[in-house]
Amino acid sequence: MCCRLNVDSSRDGADMAAAGSQLMEDQFLCSICLEVFTAPVSTPCGHNFCQSCISAHWDLNVSCQCPICKRLFQARPELHVNTFISEMVAHFRRSAQPETGGGPELRAARPGEVHCDVCAGTRLKALKSCLVCLVSYCQTHLEPHLTAAGLRRHQLIEPVENLESRVCTQHGKPLELFCRDEQACICTLCSVVDHKAHDLVSLQDGYEVQKAELVAMEAELQHLIQQRQMRIAELKTDN
Hints:
By secondary structure, the chain is of the alpha+beta class. The chain folds into three domains: 26-93, Herpes Virus-1, CATH 3.30.40; 108-161, no CATH class; 173-238, 2-Layer Sandwich (Double Stranded RNA Binding Domain), CATH 3.30.160. Helices cover 42% and strands 11% of the residues. It is built from six helices and ten strands, in the order αββαββαββαβββαβα. The protein has helices at residues 2-27, 51-59, 83-96, 139-147, 188-193, 203-238; strands at residues 40-42, 48-50, 64-65, 72-73, 128-130, 135-137, 156-157, 177-179, 184-186, 200-202. The strands form four sheets. Strands 6-5-7 form a three-stranded antiparallel sheet. It has a three-stranded antiparallel sheet with strand order 9-8-10. It has a two-stranded antiparallel sheet with strand order 1-2. The longest helix has 36 residues, at 203-238. Residues 163-203 form the B box-type domain. Keywords: Metal-binding, Zinc, Zinc-finger. GO terms for molecular function: zinc ion binding. It holds the Pfam family zf-RING_UBOX. Residues 30-70 form the RING-type domain.
């Protein structure tokens, strides 16, 4: 009988732990994408959403309204990542997954390195920067961008500082294209408004072309320098 009671007690404990884990996960779910928060922000009415989800929701609507309580905001609220909730979400993710032994990327950022914008307390080294969220993520906080369907479409780049400089000042969209006609980085909205008939390529292709041109220019300059040096040497020999 004692054994029976112990088994039942263990099962009850496991069920309670599972229920508690599910309850905690529900608290961290964005009501728009139904995924665990990524870069969570809080609206003035106190509700929380993924930064990219609420931004996209408001972009698609004329008015800015809370999707949960329907409170209408006269002006679009300026939202910032809620570091407390973000750290709670990160703790939940770590506790919900088995230990993996970390790795070289799970360490504090050193001077000169890009740090994670989501970490509270010790800032870990950023693994990627997102041009949609305008946030740099460490290995732990990057995980939703690799698994959540709504986030996998975001454009990730090697970690960089000053992400705002990678955004179009006119439209607030990521600079994803390079205009060969005007030699400028533009966003997708620029491409259909001001650069509709221009020769456009991706930023990576534009970078490769510019790099090749600079290498060719450097080689030409080196050739000219060598010719000048040879000419100077000849003049000295003649004298």
